[in-house]
Amino acid sequence: MNNDIALFRYAVEVEKTASITLAAENLYMSQPSLSKAIRDLEARLGYNVFERTSRGILPTRKGRVFLGHAHAILRQMAQIEALSTGDESSAQVLSLSTAQSPYVAEAVTRFVASLDGQKAIRVRVQETDAATTIENVAGGEARLGIIRHLSSEDGRTVETLKKKGLKSETVWEYEPALLLSRVAGIGGTWLFFATGDISIMDNDATWVMMFNKKILNDFS
Questions:
Q1: Which of 194, 155, 148, 192 minimizes the C-alpha distance to 174?
Q2: Alpha-carbon gap, residue 199 to 152, rounded angstroms
Q3: pLDDT given at position 50
Q4: What is the largest CA-CA distance in the chain?
Q5: pLDDT averaged over consecutive 10-residue blocks of the chain (220 residues)?
Q6: What CA–CA distance (Å, rounded) separates 92 from 115?
Q7: H helices then E strands: how many in the chain?
Q8: Where are the alpha helices (DSSP H) in the chain?
Q9: Residue partners of 95: CB distance under 8 A and separation at least 6
Q10: C-beta separation of 212 from 165 below 8 A
Q11: Could you tell me the end-to-end alpha-carbon distance of the chain, in angstroms, rounded to an integer?
């Protein structure tokens, strides 16, 4: 189900920008990944949602009908999520979308353990990619989001979040770390293994927490 919703969001973004390249940038995806996602969607539907024209990537006749339903489904998902968090005013709620990380998982565990066990507790955590996390928070499917990005992309990330009406706060900056282990190989060859979820290709990176305005009232 979550994968279907993500595909709907991808298609809606392509419709909005009329460009795979711009849509991929807004979704924090590579262009090939977004193109493949749209092809997979069209294969499942059995018809083309978009066609290339001199004015850009535009919906086909059937594509316009599909996108109308996609918009409606995304709105309804946001409304359903709002229902699940709107009735119990005293409940302690954590609705989080985040990149997969043991550090975030540990933080969530500690946070939940600190809550008042005498009151209702509702926790919903979705581990996904940065693009989907941003869309989840913007669309109301999550009330908090945590993403990681290269520090060189700080400006573009903040601008994207502002355009979607999201406030953001930097919670952690770090330098890359490469852990190496020496293993004796055949003929005295040295073998090196990188471990953990920090890649040497990350350069330096930034963790960013984003939240919609409703969270300010709920947790202030």
A1: 148
A2: 16
A3: 95
A4: 68
A5: 80 91 84 91 94 91 93 81 58 80 81 80 81 83 83 80 83 72 46 35 47 46
A6: 7
A7: 8, 9
A8: 2-17, 20-26, 31-45, 61-86, 102-113, 130-138, 154-163, 214-219
A9: 81, 85, 122, 124, 142, 143, 144
A10: yes
A11: 33
